[in-house]
Amino acid sequence: MTARASDIVTESTDFKAWAAAGQSRVEAALERVLPSAQIAPERLHHAMRYAVLGGGKRVRPLLAFAAGELSNADPRRVVLAGAAVEIIHAYSLVHDDLPCMDDDVLRRGQPTCHVQYDEATAMLVGDALQSLAFHVLAEHKLADDAATQLEMVNILAIASGSRGMAGGQAIDLVAVGKELTVPELEFMHIHKTGAIIRAAALLGLKCGTPLTPDDHKHVDTFAKTVGLAFQVVDDVLDAEADTATLGKTAGKDADQGKPTYVSAIGLARAKAFAEELRVEAMKSLAGFGERALRLRQLADFIVLRKS
Fold first, then answer.
1. CATH annotation of 15-304
2. What is the 3-state secondary structure (H, E, C) of 15-69?
3. What's the half-sphere exposure (Cβ side, CA atoms, 13 Å) at 27?
4. CB hemisphere CA count around 158 (13 angstroms)
């Protein structure tokens, strides 16, 4: 019998157990698809593994797993789609931390890639990880037909590029020292943070049986909403959590004069906005019943997390 996304753990509804099982599965997949540090060029491959493995909440692959449950997707497909998204996310963090961008020295509780190695190596790590993500999507059979798999490649390409994450980062860099309105912040973060989160859910969904257009639209709405909520909560945590809790430099946004939801509407309103987004995300899942349990739990996790 073919394994399904819901089979990655027992029938228990416990979110922590489900998430831990998914994280473990993704970590193993990342270990497999990343080049060995013993293969030339060894330093670059070692740095790639340093940037990707052994850290992070793996929220994006978990979203892929949760969305895959709606389409009865095979987890052996979903884990690779989720790994591809996580590799893109890791590359973006390596480049974000560079002196020419956010100039940060700490990521996931350890020195950033350019600090541990050097700036040139970190640039190459990001470049190599980006191409690796698309290699993973192209090399393995992740959908029942070639057209759907090609669509998956396109989804991740758009989400990663100038109309997605890279474009959002460009807007973010230009906005330093400026005051943005809430709609301007939303536009920036729907691209910078939300695009990859949305891609994770859609890729997990497309590993399985196609949904109706309406159901697909509801999942897309959910992903866009929780993607924005993720950034709002990030802004809140940057303002009130400490460096040890975050695993990265706390207060960096304020120090650099970056516009955030906290600077735009205040801490209390930003917290309330995150909760409003959580409620909106839940409403988009109303028609799925218990099949959307993991998506609901992930929305709770994203909004209620403390780090």
1. 1.10.600.10
2. HHHHHHHHHHHHHHHHHHHCCCCCCCCHHHHHHHHHHHCCCCCCHHHHHHHHHHH
3. 13
4. 13
Residue 54's pLDDT band, with cuts at 50, 70 and 90, is confident
Give this prediction's pTM: 0.92
Q: What is the pLDDT of residue 1?
A: 35
- Burial (Cβ within 10 Å: 0-12, 13-18, ≥19) of residue 218: buried
Alpha carbon 119 to chain centroid, angstroms: 24
| pLDDT surpasses 90 at 252 | no
**Rounded Cα distance, 133 and 117, in Å:** 22
**In the prediction, which pLDDT does 5 show?**
45
- Residue 111, judged by CB atoms within 10 A of its CB (0-12, 13-18, 19+), counts as middle
Rounded CA separation 231/195 (Å): 11
SS3 111: strand
